[in-house]
Amino acid sequence: MTDDFDSLMVAPMPTAARPLLGLTVLVVEDSRFASEAMRLLCLRSGARIRRADSLSAARKHLRVYRPNVVIVDLGLPDGSGADLIDELSHARPRVDVLLGMSGDSGAEALSVAAGADGFIEKPISSLGTFQECVLSCLPGGVQPVGLHAVSSDEITPDPIALQDDFVHIADLLTTNGGENLLDYIAQFLGGVARTAGDTEMEIAAKALAYHRENGMSYGSDVARIAGLVQSRIEPRKVV
């Protein structure tokens, strides 16, 4: 007997326009902006969505609920999403679909090696691409019957969520979290910048990551990022 209340309810049947109807998706993602994109993709596809912003939050959630689909970002504040993928790939009963997600090179291979059924490359805004990724990984007994419409729609996350991400980083930059916190900031900002199409921020985040990785001076990188973040959270002046 399961303790997931949702599983006690009769799941609605998927439709051509909403092929993921009846599925529950857990998105493990620390970025509010990326989470908003996933929320829109899931809702437009008919799926219910829950979110966890860290490994610990995801594990707490999974002790209570059993989603059909789990999508795990590889860069999380308390560790690698690959560790959670590995845990879930060996858990019994296993979730129907387990997907890794990242915009970093080499992340797909890492996800698959950890046991993921598939991979979502950031940024993702195509409804059809998202639906095909999930549907192609569903087990035969769970696959919806019949054809579904391949959507060409694109989703646009709320820019307020992007502001929330920059405010989060601004707070972290004033926190004495040790050297490893800078690695997380570089990874987080790089992912957010790719999702938002913010080339300037992405270049700055990559520079910090590169200099940190190679033992080079990075003080100017931190100062540059702090200035860029502040410029993105300050209200625009009305001329």
TrEMBL record:
Q: Where is the Response regulatory domain?
A: 24-137
Sorted alphabetically, the keyword list is: Phosphoprotein
Does the keyword section mention Lipoprotein?
no
An example GO biological process term is: phosphorelay signal transduction system
- 4-aspartylphosphate, modified sites: D73
Superkingdom assignment: Bacteria
Q: Which PROSITE patterns match?
A: RESPONSE_REGULATORY
Matches recorded under PANTHER family: RESPONSE REGULATORY DOMAIN-CONTAINING PROTEIN, STRESS RESPONSE REGULATOR PROTEIN 1
Q: What is this protein called?
A: Response regulator receiver domain-containing protein
Q: Which organism is it from?
A: Celeribacter persicus
